[in-house]
Amino acid sequence: MLKYIREILQILSISLAICIFPALVLAQANSLDKIIDAKISTMSLDEKVGQLFIVGFPYTKMNKDLEGFVSSYKPGSFLLFKRNIQSAEQVRKLNLDLYQLAYKTTKLPPLIAIDQ
To answer: In terms of residue numbers, what domain contains 88?
Structure first.
């Protein structure tokens, strides 16, 4: 008998959680949607298009060419290859430089991916 009561309570608890939880998630999602929509509405067409691109480059550190490219095209993502990697410290510095430059030019954090 105690086993059945426990099972019924578990089922009721799960059902209640399913009914309540979506309302909380939707409220948070709506708030986040408003923030995202506000950011997108302030972006130019070029900035929106730039966010769609993931770009690779032949350098192991930030330089004027890369700075100019990022400032001009405002890509949303970067892809690092073996040619970009020399050491853990060098990659950490490159990631930090990419992040700071992208955030400075777009006010959005970039996606940085590695293909090895």
So the answer is: 45-114
